Amino acid sequence: MRNGRVGIRWAGRAGDIRRDPIHTKIPHTHPRSLEKMWTLFHIFIYTFFLGAAFLLIRHYTSPPPSTTKKLPPSPPRLPVIGNLHQLGELVHHSFYSLAKRYGDSLMLLYIGSVPSLVVSSTEAAREIMKTHDIAFGSRPDTRMFRAISYDLKEITAAPYGEYWRQAKSILTLQFLSNKKVQTFDGLREKIMGECVDKIHRCFLSNQPVDLSDMFSSLTNDITCMAAFGRTYNEGEIGRKFKKVLKEFSEVLGSFYFEDSIPQLAVVDRLRGLSAKVDRVAVDFDEFLQGVVDETLSKRSKNPNNPVGEDGMETFVEALLKIQKEDIIGITIDDDVIKALLLDAYVAGTDTSSSVLEWLMTELLLHPDKLEKVKSEVRKVLHGKKDITEDDLEKMTYLKAVIMETTRLHPPLPVLPPRVARHDVKVMGYDIAEGTRVYVNVYAIMRDPKVWDKADTFLPERFFDLSIDFVKHNFELLTFGAGRRGCPGRIFAMAINEKVLAKILNEFDWSLPSGVKREDVDMKETFGLANHRKVPLLAVGKPVSP
Ligand code: HEM
């Protein structure tokens, strides 16, 4: 899931990767001489004012717009940049406060010259993702996304159509289905076991555990093992992987003028961003090609054995098999394989670790809820350490805790942008073809008209509501909805539920000594997903030695 690069948001511990759907901040450029900076600054200023003058003249000399169209409410905007100056680094907060003033259901902004519809209510979300799901079933086609998504072959970036449909079905069947997710069980156990050992070691050396870092490595390792057949966290290859990820996210976190204010595209070139986008695409491609080549080489040495752990078929293997059999209705060339691998990695890791990080934050801040969920887990498991699907089914409070956490801290607070494929009327407003649509699920999931005590962490609320991730009625939008909804829910929940049950079963958790609940910093930062700005530290006391 990404947002911005049409929606998939990247970050990661591997990353401190930051980005948001539309724009966050122009990244720091590499150190350069003051003189060069000064020249760049001048070029930027001249270009900016020339562009502004051009647009102002055009604006005032064009005939007035037709009055027959009924547009959603909009805040006032500036020439050239539109409403860009009103968007801060955490765009969901900016949208939320603007919506309160200008349009708490639908609001029309201009990001540069691009009309952008911000959706902030359950009813409006239902209109976009159910009533007009096909009309809004595509993603914006931008130069940046084309460059880094194998020419829009990544599912998240792909336009609505046969390719997207087939590619999504391959990802779902070959990597994310219930059956497939079960085959990764041994892998999850092994990696969770390593985490348990780490928590023990920290306890014995009187150190708190950096849970943010631990969850990030855990989800990274599980996804890499299941998709690529090995991890990439050590040695030279590990360093390279982290560097590529970091640069990738820097690129995604940059505001790319060409895609929103085409008149200022020259600025992207002058500050080296265009070149950086192309370089990152090449570096990532080299990395993914390495994954494919390594798999092919292992398979040629041992053609009858799958290359994954314990005979498990990895996603890359499944894709190579489909390519060889050539029985799908679309051409599976090497770029398609790499694009789908990128989808699986990018969409799957940071989102899950964000859920775990906020889960433990909320539980540590609410000791009564922590006690309640811990008691449930231990009652169901009754002293045993391995956790089965049946056990998890019985942990209804644990499931409610997860839903409530993602309601308050959705990993993707603004859904990856959709785009109107043709003119369409939504809630009586005229939405023009090409309008980008941003569903602010953060606003929807904190809407006091829908949620009682909307800002309070209250997992019990789900016992009285007939809402969950599956049968939501556009109130709980953690995984989005409609045709473009997330296909990775089962994969992600298999990790989140098990990890939470495991660490609550085997450890008693508390904040590090001397840290009070009110000291816990709740600031957010955006990478590939919405994370804590400050890592979460906690002490896990083993239940039995
Ligand atoms: C807790 C974990 C996860 C969360 C919260 C999450 C959330 C989301 C959201 C909100 C969207 C956008 C949906 C929309 O626009 O309506 C999305 C899309 C997507 N997600 Fe996830 N996701 C998670 C895990 C995963 C995993 C594990 C995978 C695959 C490995 C995955 C693959 C995708 C893909 C491919 C899309 C794009 C779908 C499309 O454009 O048709 N996600 N995800």
From TrEMBL:
<feature type="binding site" description="axial binding residue">
    <location>
        <position position="486"/>
    </location>
    <ligand>
        <name>heme</name>
    </ligand>
</feature>
<feature type="transmembrane region" description="Helical">
    <location>
        <begin position="38"/>
        <end position="57"/>
    </location>
</feature>
<keyword id="KW-1133">Transmembrane helix</keyword>
<comment type="pathway">
    <text>Secondary metabolite biosynthesis; terpenoid biosynthesis.</text>
</comment>
<dbReference type="InterPro" id="IPR002401">
    <property type="entry name" value="Cyt_P450_E_grp-I"/>
</dbReference>
<protein>
    <recommendedName>
        <fullName>Cytochrome P450</fullName>
    </recommendedName>
</protein>
<comment type="similarity">
    <text>Belongs to the cytochrome P450 family.</text>
</comment>
<keyword id="KW-0503">Monooxygenase</keyword>
<keyword id="KW-0479">Metal-binding</keyword>
<dbReference type="InterPro" id="IPR017972">
    <property type="entry name" value="Cyt_P450_CS"/>
</dbReference>
<dbReference type="InterPro" id="IPR036396">
    <property type="entry name" value="Cyt_P450_sf"/>
</dbReference>
<dbReference type="GO" id="GO:0016712">
    <property type="term" value="F:oxidoreductase activity, acting on paired donors, with incorporation or reduction of molecular oxygen, reduced flavin or flavoprotein as one donor, and incorporation of one atom of oxygen"/>
</dbReference>
<dbReference type="InterPro" id="IPR001128">
    <property type="entry name" value="Cyt_P450"/>
</dbReference>
<keyword id="KW-0408">Iron</keyword>
<keyword id="KW-0349">Heme</keyword>
<dbReference type="Pfam" id="PF00067">
    <property type="entry name" value="p450"/>
</dbReference>
<dbReference type="GO" id="GO:0051762">
    <property type="term" value="P:sesquiterpene biosynthetic process"/>
</dbReference>
<dbReference type="GO" id="GO:0005506">
    <property type="term" value="F:iron ion binding"/>
</dbReference>
<keyword id="KW-0472">Membrane</keyword>
<dbReference type="GO" id="GO:0020037">
    <property type="term" value="F:heme binding"/>
</dbReference>
<keyword id="KW-0812">Transmembrane</keyword>
<keyword id="KW-0560">Oxidoreductase</keyword>
